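> example.struct
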């Protein structure tokens, strides 16, 4: 196979394991490049890209001796430098996949560097710290990194460690063997059906499925993202960095409010900005925009008296207050006003999800109206808010989404 796999490792502490992993990958027909991201002792095996080269690639005036006294800064410099080196290798068609090995610090460094690579490039982290509480989300971020839990630590090349590394070698070789060499989504764009990104949740599942089936029948690919925080953050990154989508149907953009109010579905400060920045058409709906999911450990006293829907033992949806509606409406408007492409906002008047329709304790169209009216005050005049006399999960609303989609796509083509 004409494939090159990069190994990220600390050769001062994991040299023996790295050498074995390299041999197993090469036995399966792939070339290997080893990048040393060690920060302490002398490397026990030679690297194809040394730690000195990694530090130089960090683009800083590096004083390695001084950095030894500032470990967090040294680690960040290694992450930045390794990220730059793997980007260079990928751009030069010298990287088909990447694998890292190690414990907590190594996992943090390796996955940090892996995030420099685009979606679709095989990325595998073999970590003895994969299941540590509070760490996994940092390792993944919004990237498509696969993490294999080694269970045992990387302290020696024993029988169990050989078994772990044998499986790791087979895994990364299998990943790269199934991918078109050095292909990017941009390379395939002319051959592919146009892609539409769509956020969704189980509270708008009927609407999402209806829209998806109709658009696929018209020749589009609909790529779904669960609007739970990390997936919709990943969607924003793919829109901005990869340029692979023709439009966005944002059925569930509630992460904007969650970010402001400290909810569990927060997706970072730049949610609802990428599509506008690159200028692709947007359809916006309000699924769960009127509800938030604060961690129960951080409840304010007044939260206990709000109307709510218990999702499970750990999460409850709470209705927003009128003051919160006014505050978030201004933020939504500010983000959408920056859009360079066409935008339409479709609002149902009989509930914004499958759990707040007529008869539900959450049903309160008068309070929902506060958000809509405040949004109108701050939006650009060319951004239409279209109201539909239905619940978000009912067919007339889904039909309104499809109609608006055709309109914004036609406008985008005309311009």
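> example.seq
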């Amino acid at each position: 196979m004409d494939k090159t796999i990069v190994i990220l490792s600390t050769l001062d502490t994991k040299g023996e394991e790295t050498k074995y992993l390299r041999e197993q990958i090469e036995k399966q027909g792939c070339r290997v490049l080893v990048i040393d991201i060690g920060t302490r002792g002398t490397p026990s095996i030679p690297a194809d890209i040394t730690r000195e080269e990694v530090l130089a690639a960090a683009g800083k005036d590096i004083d390695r001796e001084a950095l030894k006294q500032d470990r967090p800064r040294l680690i960040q410099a290694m992450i930045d430098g390794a990220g730059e080196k793997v980007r260079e290798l990928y751009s030069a068609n010298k990287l088909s996949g990447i694998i890292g090995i190690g414990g907590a610090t190594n996992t943090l460094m390796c996955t940090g560097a892996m995030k420099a690579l685009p979606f679709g490039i095989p990325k595998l982290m073999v970590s003895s710290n994969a299941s540590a509480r509070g760490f996994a989300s940092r390792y993944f971020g919004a990237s498509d990194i696969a993490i294999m839990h080694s269970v045992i630590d990387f302290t020696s090349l024993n029988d169990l460690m050989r078994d772990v590394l044998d499986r790791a070698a087979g895994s990364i070789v299998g990943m790269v063997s199934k991918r078109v060499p050095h292909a990017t989504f941009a390379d395939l764009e002319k051959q592919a059906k146009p892609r539409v990104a769509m956020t969704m949740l189980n509270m708008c599942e009927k609407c999402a499925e209806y829209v998806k089936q109709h658009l696929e029948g018209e020749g589009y690919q609909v790529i779904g993202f669960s609007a739970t925080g990390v997936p919709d953050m990943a969607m924003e990154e793919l829109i901005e960095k990869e340029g692979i989508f023709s439009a966005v149907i944002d059925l569930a953009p509630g992460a904007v409010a969650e970010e402001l109010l400290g909810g569990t579905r927060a997706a970072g400060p730049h949610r609802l900005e990428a599509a506008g920045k690159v200028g692709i058409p947007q359809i916006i709906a309000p699924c769960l925009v009127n509800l938030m999911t604060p961690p129960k450990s951080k409840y304010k006293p007044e939260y206990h008296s709000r109307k709510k829907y218990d999702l499970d033992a750990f999460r409850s949806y709470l209705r927003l207050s009128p003051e919160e509606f006014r505050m978030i409406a201004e933020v939504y408007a500010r983000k959408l006003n920056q859009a360079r492409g066409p935008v339409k906002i479709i609002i149902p008047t009989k509930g914004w999800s499958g759990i707040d329709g007529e008869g539900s304790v959450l049903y309160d169209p008068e309070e929902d109206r506060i958000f809509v009216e405040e949004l109108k005050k701050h939006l650009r005049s060319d951004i239409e808010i279209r109201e539909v006399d239905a619940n978000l999960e009912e067919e007339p609303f889904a039909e309104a989404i499809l109609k608006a989609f055709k309109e914004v796509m036609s406008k985008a083509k005309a311009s």
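> remarks
The radius of gyration is 24 Å.
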